[in-house]
Design brief:
Immunoglobulin-like; disordered N terminus; mainly beta; 3 domains; 23 strands
C-alpha cells in the first residue's frame, strides 16, 4: 500500500509540474474540468465508460488524470469439514484494469485485503456478514504527453475489467461461500490553461460546487465602468439561459472589482447546470462571459446517489473515510415516508424500491448513527 501511495503522489507532482510549466507560458489561469460516471457491480463485471473529450475551444490542454475510486463489500461463510483442527487465513484479492484507444497502454493494479485468521475445530464455522472491506480506494493514471487523442468533440470509451477473488490458506478441504459487490466511480480531469480575457474586462470567472446545497460564483473586473449591470444566468443545456439575479456595479470608473454570489441548488436543478454573466453597460451595450459548467452529481465530501434518474432502485455511496451504521428513508415530494431501512458497518447501500414509484422527484434522507448527522439528496424517477 505504501509504494502505491508514493506512485499516486508522484503522478500528482508530474501533473502539477507540467501544468505550471505550460501555465507560465499563458496569460490565463490553470483550470480543470472533470467528467465522471459511477456504476455498481458484483466485483467481476466488465464495464464500458464513455466520457467527454476536451473541447480545444475551451483552452490549451496541459494534462489529464484518469481516476478510479473503488469500494467493495464482501461477506463469507467458512467451515472446517476435516476431522482435525485447522488454522485458516482469508484475504480478498482485487485486480483492476482499464484500457482505451486513447491510452497507449492499459492501466492495471493489484492489491490484497487481509480479512483475518480463523482457527476452527472440526465442524466449526465462521460467518462474516457483507461489509465494506475496501472504502474509496483510489488509483489513477496521469498523462502529460500524446494528448491529441483527448481533443475534439464526442466521447472516449474506456473498458474496465475488475476481478475480485478469494485467497484461502490452512487446508485443502473446507466449505466456503462468499458474496461480493463493488462500486466504481470513474472520472477524467482535464488540466488546461484558459488564456482568454473575457468580455467587458471580466477575468477569472469561476463556478464551484461547495456543497450539496450551494454553488459559488465569482468573477473579477478590470477597468470597471459606472452604471454597468451584471446579470447571472443559468441553463440546463448551455444554450438556453434564464435569469438568476442582477448585480449592479459596485465600483467607480477604472476600478477593479471582485464579485461573489452563492447560488442555492433547487429541486429543479439536475445533472448539469451552466452559468454565464450578461454584462450590460450604461449605454446599453451587451456582452457575455464564457459559460461555466457544474456537474451536480460530482464527487463531494457528502454522499453520492446513483443512478439518477432512477427506475426501480438507488445505490448510495456515503463517501466516508470509515464505515458507519446508517438509517435511510425515502420520502415523496409531499413529505410522506415511503420506506426505510438500516445498514450496518458499511459505506455502500443498495436500496430497491418496495413499490413502483410514479414519475417525479423524491428525497432520500440518510442518518449517520454514530455522529447523528443527516444527509438529504433528491433523485428523480423516470
Amino acid at each position: 500500500m505504501k509504494s502505491f501511495l508514493k506512485i499516486l503522489c508522484l503522478s500528482a507532482y508530474i501533473i502539477n509540474f507540467a501544468a505550471l510549466t505550460v501555465a507560465a507560458q499563458c496569460t490565463g489561469i490553470l483550470q480543470t474540468v472533470t467528467y465522471d460516471t459511477a456504476i455498481a457491480g458484483n466485483g467481476n463485471d466488465t464495464h464500458v465508460f464513455s466520457l467527454s473529450k476536451f473541447n480545444p475551444a475551451t483552452g490549451t490542454l496541459v494534462a489529464a488524470k484518469i481516476t478510479s475510486l473503488i469500494s467493495i463489500n464482501y461477506g463469507f461463510t467458512l467451515q472446517n469439514v476435516e476431522g482435525v483442527p485447522r488454522d485458516f487465513a482469508v484475504s480478498v484479492g482485487r485486480y483492476d484494469n482499464f484500457s482505451s484507444t486513447a491510452l497507449s497502454t492499459p492501466h492495471t493494479n493489484l492489491l490484497s485485503v487481509p480479512l483475518g485468521s480463523f482457527p476452527l475445530n472440526p465442524g466449526d464455522s465462521v460467518i462474516r456478514a457483507p461489509s465494506t472491506i475496501l472504502s474509496h480506494y483510489m488509483q489513477s493514471d496521469s498523462l502529460i504527453y500524446d494528448m491529441a487523442n483527448f481533443l475534439g468533440s464526442g466521447t472516449i470509451d474506456y473498458n474496465y475489467t475488475p476481478i475480485t477473488y478469494t485467497n484461502l490458506t490452512g487446508s485443502n478441504v473446507y466449505y466456503y461461500a462468499a458474496t461480493a459487490s463493488d462500486s466504481i466511480r470513474f472520472s477524467i480531469t482535464y488540466f488546461y490553461c484558459n488564456a482568454t480575457v473575457l468580455p467587458a474586462g471580466i477575468i477569472d470567472f469561476f463556478a464551484k460546487k461547495e456543497s450539496v446545497e450551494n454553488i459559488a460564483l465569482s468573477w473579477k473586473i478590470l477597468n470597471e465602468t459606472v452604471g454597468r449591470n451584471y446579470e447571472i444566468q443559468k441553463s440546463k443545456d448551455g444554450i438556453t439561459f434564464e435569469l438568476v439575479t442582477s448585480i449592479p456595479s459596485l465600483k467607480g470608473a477604472n476600478d477593479t472589482g471582485n464579485y461573489l454570489y452563492e447560488y442555492k441548488i433547487t429541486a429543479e436543478d439536475k445533472d448539469k447546470i451552466y452559468f454565464r454573466i450578461k454584462i450590460t453597460d450604461a449605454a446599453g451595450a451587451i456582452t457575455y462571459s464564457e459559460n461555466r459548467e457544474i456537474n451536480l452529481d460530482a464527487f463531494s465530501g457528502n454522499l453520492y446517489l446513483y443512478p439518477n434518474p432512477s427506475a426501480n432502485y438507488i445505490n448510495v455511496d456515503f463517501n466516508q473515510p470509515e464505515v458507519h451504521n446508517w438509517n435511510i428513508s425515502i420520502y415523496a415530494s409531499n413529505g410522506i415516508l415511503l420506506q426505510s431501512a438500516q445498514f450496518q458497518n458499511t459505506n455502500l447501500a443498495y436500496i430497491p424500491f418496495k413499490q413502483q414509484l410514479p414519475s417525479g422527484i423524491y428525497f432520500m434522507k440518510a442518518t449517520d448513527v454514530q455522529n447523528r448527522k443527516n444527509y438529504i439528496k433528491s433523485f428523480t424517477i423516470k
